[in-house]
Amino acid sequence: MAVSDHVDFNQFMEGVKRRNSHQPEFVQAVQEVAEDIFDFIQDKEAYHEAQILRRIAEPDRVVSFRVCWEDDNGNIRVQRGWRVQNNNAIGPYKGGIRFHPSVTESVLKFLAFEQTFKNALTGLPMGGGKGGSNFNPKGKSVREIMRFCQSFMTELYRHIGADVDVPAGDIGVGGREIGYMFGQYKRITNQFTGVLTGKGLEWGGSLIRTEATGYGAVYFLANMLATKGQDLTGKTAVISGSGNVATHAAEKIVQLGGKVLTLSDSGGFIHDPDGIDQEKIDWVKTHKTHRRGRIEDYVNEFKGASFHAGKTPWGVKCDVAMPCATQNELLGEDAKTLVANGCIAVSEGANMPTDLAGVHVFKDARILFAPGKASNAGGVAVSGLEMSQNSERRAWKEEELQQMLKDIMSGIHATCQRYGDQGGGYIDYVKGANIGGFKKVADAMLAFGVV
Ligand code: NDP
């Protein structure tokens, strides 16, 4: 096909929209990537001829299944479960499992698509996948959660494997749920293999996996600030979320000398002008994870803080911002407010928390903006290291892993610089991450022919 015969960006997106007409999150994720990739492949005939972008934007397979379980009152409940295996060009499918009522096939397809680029950026041999269910763990007893996890794995086990597809945790799925799922996998298959990551330390888990996403996102932020000769000392930070990613991001910011002003959950945000220090972060971790409490209770515990029901924290003046809760939680208007208030850097801890309008505001303002597929890759990177340790049947030391995580985040930053340098000191990290991730997967796909 001659270069002039190629479909243009609009035609390509029309096709994506037509084929995925009720999947807005997936279309949004493809559009964000395609905007950058179209420029990059303009003069690269091999990628066009092999229809690489079109192929990456069509999952290898989507498995959808029924999950039945019995609640504590003896009622039979029915949920829907999925595993999306997007692309395994550079390694086994890899990506988390999410339990949340907002989970749909569209959300999981967008996450598996993003994961493909993210995993490639880590430099480790991992393809992209994602799974989950519309099951709502909130308000469920521990026994109900166990029964649900077991039923979910009773179907999922036939689609995964240490060299096939290696799921991990995500929203609503932490160490406890991974334990229940691994227990059921082992019971069905009679195999103790590295089929899931995020496992407990006593049974094949890796040190620093829990902290890795939040810590990694802050290392990435520090790398970006360093390009401007700055660091986190004395900087004020606004963070959303109060789960795994948010609390560990807060912890690392405090360790590096910054002051965290906010945390949030789906009920609203808390603002603590005195700063959320390590003691307060520890309280939030226990309250949210073990007591399954609400962030608003923070104000009863720590004087001087205020709770803002139903609101996101982006109106609080800050130097740096980290959206760490969920997708599309930072919109165009929020981005304008952050920029107007003098925010100089945004590092996404969550997946696609900034909508397309917001991304364009940050790009136009030329502030330091790291997309999740680059900045939150620390979690999956340590998951990749957990897979290596499982294969080796060894556990590496914490110092080694801490250093590897730092090196991987610096490597991702360097890749983004390489492909995203726009001259004049401005790095378009979104473009850099999209192209860096795409190129690695695309080149592997070229080697395999049309499969
Ligand atoms: P958790 O379940 O530990 O925490 C999620 C947090 O986000 C909670 O505070 C939750 O509040 C809040 N939240 C969820 N949905 C909404 C909503 N619709 N509006 C406002 N707040 C909401 O999840 P994680 O911290 O693990 O994950 C957070 C994000 O990071 C997700 O986008 C995830 O995909 C991404 N991520 C996670 C990785 C990991 O290693 N854990 C790796 C890479 C990315 P509430 O308690 O009220 O539900």
From TrEMBL:
Binding positions for substrate? Answer: K94, Q115, K118, G169, S383
Q: Where is the Glutamate/phenylalanine/leucine/valine/L-tryptophan dehydrogenase C-terminal domain?
A: 206-449
| Site location (Important for catalysis) | D170
Instruction: Identify the GO cellular component terms for this protein.
Output: cytosol
Annotated GO biological processes are:
glutamate biosynthetic process
Q: Which residues cross the membrane?
A: none
Q: Matching SMART domains, A to Z?
A: ELFV_dehydrog
Q: Which Pfam families match?
A: ELFV_dehydrog, ELFV_dehydrog_N
- Self-association or partners: how does it assemble? Homohexamer.
Family matches, as PANTHER family: NADP-SPECIFIC GLUTAMATE DEHYDROGENASE 1-RELATED
Q: What protein does this entry describe?
A: Glutamate dehydrogenase
Q: What is the lineage of its organism?
A: Bacteria, Pseudomonadati, Pseudomonadota, Alphaproteobacteria, Sphingomonadales
Q: Which gene encodes it?
A: gdhA
